[in-house]
Amino acid sequence: MFVDRAKIFIRSGKGGDGAVTFRREPYVPEGGPDGGDGGKGGDVVFMADSSLRTLMDFRYKRKYQAENGQNGMKKKKYGKKGEDLIIKVPPGTLVIDEETGHLMKDLVNPGDSFVAAKGGKGGKGNVHFKNSVRQAPNFAEAGGLPKERNVILELKLIADVGLVGFPNVGKSSLLSVCTKAKPKIANYHFTTIDPNLGVVEVSNTSFVMADIAGIIEGAHEGAGMGFRFLKHIERTKVLIHVVDVSGSEGRDPIEDFDKINNELARYSEYLMKKPQIVAANKIDMVDEDGPEYTRFKEYVEAKGYKVFPISAPINVGVPQLMEEAAKMLATVEAQPLEETMEIFDFEREDNDPDYRKVEVSRDNEAYVLSGKQLTKIFNSTNFNDIGSIRYLYKYIERSGAVEKLKEMGLEEGDIIRIQDFEFEYIDEF
Fold first, then answer.
1. Segment 335-391, tens digit of pLDDT
2. What are the residue ranges spanned by the domains of the chain?
3. Which end of the chain is more exposed for a tag (fewer CB within 10 A), N or C?
């Protein structure tokens, strides 16, 4: 099964906690602190792998987590860094942050990669908190929290040539004749639900051709599976527009031609900038010199397109069509994919201006403090050690949070809550 969209949860590794240890050596009374730093948590990395062509694996596994960093150890030994988690996806995959809807990375080429979630930093051991006043710090820094998010994976096929047209006009037959691909072919609508790829070899060169499932009216608004079909055309360099000139489905070939191009243009004007060749299929069922085909040919050529009469099942006119596609490809540069979505701001995430901000609020009778750095320091606090508690209080005081709480009505004896812990406020610490 071809799967071109998936949603997964990713979580980087937590940073290892710094160690609280002291030297314990013979003949060294009151040995000082020697707690080592924790190791950094593992990153979550996405990488494009040419051996993959669908997102099928992500249907069965939806949660991915990198390894946590190891805690620090005595004798100033660092904890081991957590192993990075590399998630392999097919080339052509877009990675999108679900919360913001912003594009994190377009992994176009095999080997392209990026870090989607950085591991938490390792916490500092108690050796870093020794000073002239605090000779034996009985606390250390907790490891940095991991980053976690839901991401959407969206695959857009990478092919040189894309076959477009209404359902049942012969795109799959054309692909099967030109390549070794074995698409399902039958005389009913939407035989092709999933895109098929094949390699065309012609004139000492080759190119990849994709049979894009049939487009219908309203596809640009999502009718049928319009969005799913149309997005696979975006990366192609050349389009072959297959039209049933026999009218065997009871439709007018000229109307078909205009309707498909209208759907392409309304989905993205960018698609209409692509070179397009028109394949007048099922020519064996009409008189090539008759008025119906002549009218179609003149109409299309007047719009600046080349028309090639073909009959895909019996390979009539197909070699000439492929020669023209190869010739056109040789002159066309790959156009960059025009994405309208915003780009995810990694710099802002790495340098979060609100990281040190302490938020204050009130929940019934309790005053609530919250904040990213506050959480980290709180998690590092040893509540059996007065120096560690004082370190936490001084941080809260310097942040201005105490003054804000007093403005909200905080008085001695009131309850202050941090996470799930509650404390009684004492005006003089």
1. 555 555 678 878 777 777 778 888 999 888 889 999 888 888 888 888 888 878 888
2. 1-155, 161-331, 359-424
3. N
